[in-house]
Amino acid sequence: MEYLSNLTADVLARAAKIRLAAFDVDGTLTDGRLWYSESGHETKVFHVHDGLGLKRLQAHGIEVAIVSARISHPVALRAEELNIAHVYQGQSDKRECMRQILEALELAPEQAAFVGDDLPDLPAMHLAGLAVAVANAHPWVVQRAHWQTSLGGGMGAVREVCDLILHAQGKSAAEQEHWR
What we know:
This protein is an alpha/beta fold. Helices cover 40% and strands 15% of the residues. The protein has helices at 9-16, 48-59, 73-81, 94-105, 122-127, 139-144, 157-168, 172-178; strands spanning 20-23, 35-36, 42-43, 63-67, 86-88, 112-116, 130-133, 147-148. A six-stranded parallel sheet has the order 5-4-1-6-7-8, with helices on both faces. The chain has a two-stranded antiparallel sheet with strand order 2-3. Helix 5 links the parallel strand 6 (112-116) and strand 7. The chain starts with 8 loop residues before the first helix and ends with a helix.
């Protein structure tokens, strides 16, 4: 089975327009589990494949944003490591946050993708031109998504989305050539 072979014409058309890819954190960039040390410090586990995918989107001129309802120091550290400039934590209204990002970047909603896993992500997904649910997303989120990844949150799902966007924009061959 060829990678990304399950793409419909609609999903490809939507992904071809993307200039901003925004991601939830817990359950999307991570597996959704919250880890606390004995001292009360929060830790998170991020997948290295997802990180490279985000960097490759940026290398091709696609803006990347993190939009999270929670506030977490490990998220800030990971975003800094990946040079993600658009990091919005403590966002109870993700749709309004997305509207503000789009306005600041002078983009239309159809130029944005939002990737999530649970109910708080739905308003932002409704706004985005490409709404993606990770494989282990809540069924109501899957129902509203334009596309669902085959991998779960924190397990490479974000990389699938990055590859989808680059593929739809005709950049897969350049990516493969880059790594020869």
